[in-house]
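[09:14] KT: can someone run the structure on this one? pasting the chain below
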Amino acid sequence: ARQLGRERSGQQLIEDLQKLENTLPKHTNRPELKMVFLLDLNDRGLSQAGRDTVGNALISLLNGENISTFNGYQSVSLESILAMDPDVILLGKRSNGKPVTNEFLARYPLLNNTSAGLSNLIISMDAGKLIAGLSITAVEQAADLAKRIYPASE
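[09:31] RB: done, C-alpha cells below
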C-alpha cells in the first residue's frame, strides 16, 4: 500500500482482516483437534498440506493441530491418513469448483473409518479461495468452517 500511495486503504484492509479473524471462535476450552488439509487431485490421488502452506495457516486459524510434519505439499496414501487418524479432514479440490464430500467418500470409503469420518467432520471447501493466501475470503471461509467444526461455540 505504501508503494502505491494507498496507505489508508492498506490499513483499512488490515483492520478488516483483524476484525474478521477475531470473529473466529478461539476454542480455548477444548484440546486442539488433529486436522489435515487434503487436495483432491482426482485421478492423481491426494496431496496433503504440510507446514509452510496455506492449508497449514487455515488449520492454525481453526485452532487445530496440523498432523503433517513436513513442509509443502506431498502425495499421501489412504493408509497413512488412517494411521494418523485426524479428527477433522478439510478437503479442497485443485480444479475449479467446490468438491462434494459424498463423491469424495465414494472414491475413498476407507476415510469413513477415521475419527473425522466417524464424527462427520470430513468437510469440503473451495480451495480456490486459498490461492491468494489468507485473504478476506479465506478468513471468511475459516469462519464458516469453524461453525461446522465447533457448533457449540457459536
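[09:33] KT: thanks! The chain has a mean pLDDT of 83.
[09:34] RB: yep, looked fine to me
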